[in-house]
Amino acid sequence: MRFLLMILVAVTLTACTTNPYTGEREAxxxxxxxxxxxxxxxxxxxxxxxxxxERRKRALIGAxxxxxxxxxxxxxxxxxxxKLRQQLQGTGVSVVxxxxxxxxxxxGNVTFPVNQSDVxxxxxxxxxxxxxxxxxxxxxxxxxxxxxxxTGDGSYNLSxxxxxxxxxxxxxxxxxxxxxxxxxxxxxxxxxxxxxxxxQGRRENRRVELVLKPIVQG
Length: 218
Known about the structure:
disordered N terminus, alpha+beta, 218 residues, 2 domains, CATH 3.30.1330.60, 8 helices
């Protein structure tokens, strides 16, 4: 309930106009009505979902984002994949299609300085390219997963991977992507994709993955 009240206050503050005679800010009844409807729909959607994906999907649908159905799902993700491949060509980020999902693999050596969680400044342009596409294709959920190699302390690796996932999520939000679409999670060293006993394998395991999933009806 407190979260709902915070959203309603935010909507009230943003749904204002300036009275041309007094110069004071006044709430627009029409804007408040539309804004509260979207806010309540989003909150109720978030509370009634069965899991993280379902909660986000219901929140977004409650806020007015439509869902995909039937053959539209594949065509929608095909178009999104094509644009991502165009935008990310030559950046070091791989684009992999898994069914209706798209996985963007961002190697740690090009995304973050060693043992740090702040995104490298020279990687901002890459994330800007991702943001450009996923802002256009707003019927997509974004899972951000941080991973490390197995060197060092396991608890530290878990914390580092979570911070890195959070950093990417925060940057995407700064580029206009709503937080309702984003889920961040750190997995530490638990999901390797290569052999941690080799330098090459460890490089491959140090990564952040973005999994783009369509919002589907049903």
